[in-house]
Task: inverse folding
């Protein structure tokens, strides 16, 4: 493949990479930076791309590392005034004192088909945006990046117990938000 063809294919993947980065970083500037770093790394490593995988897969792999780097940078330099909490009262209202649901969530008919729909990802992105920053980061690191608990704790500067609380809150809030805004009752 010629260098011109390779660059054209990279440009064709840019929109996908931007959506992917924006979903994970929730900051358009950070997403743009991560995508630019990915494209520069791909250009620098063009000779290393042997075509054994799909170009999008290869670029997404590079982008995942750039996203993790961006999250690390953001964790080291937290924005003053953003505290992670405030969602526990809303979560507590979902359950009775005996721990059972107040109103059991609606069953999801066919989640695999829903995942393939563009609007689902838009709804998921809106739901993720409603989460506190640290809770969202913990969820994205675990579910989208496949990070282990120890790595998440190190990145976010929390204990393993706090990490499990953040993941639990994220899952409960996302389930409720998606029930209301996507799957319907």
Result:
């Amino acid at each position: 493949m010629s260098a011109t063809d390779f660059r054209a294919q990279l440009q064709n993947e840019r929109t996908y990479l931007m959506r992917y980065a924006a979903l994970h970083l929730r900051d358009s500037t950070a997403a743009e930076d991560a995508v630019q770093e990915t494209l520069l790394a791909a250009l620098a490593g063009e000779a290393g791309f042997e075509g054994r995988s799909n170009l999008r897969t290869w670029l997404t792999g590079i982008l995942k590392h750039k996203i993790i780097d961006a999250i690390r940078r953001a964790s080291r330099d937290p924005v003053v005034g953003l505290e992670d909490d405030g969602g526990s009262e809303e979560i507590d209202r979902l359950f009775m004192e005996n721990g059972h649901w107040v109103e059991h969530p609606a069953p999801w008919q066919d989640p695999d088909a829903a995942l393939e729909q563009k609007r689902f990802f838009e709804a998921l992105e809106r739901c993720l945006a409603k989460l506190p920053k640290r809770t969202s980061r913990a969820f994205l690191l675990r579910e989208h990046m496949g990070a282990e608990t120890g790595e998440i704790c190190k990145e976010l500067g929390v204990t393993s117990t706090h990490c499990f609380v953040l993941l639990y809150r994220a899952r409960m809030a996302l389930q409720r938000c998606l029930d209301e805004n996507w799957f319907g009752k």
Remarks:
- Residues 80-84 have pLDDT under 50 and may be disordered.
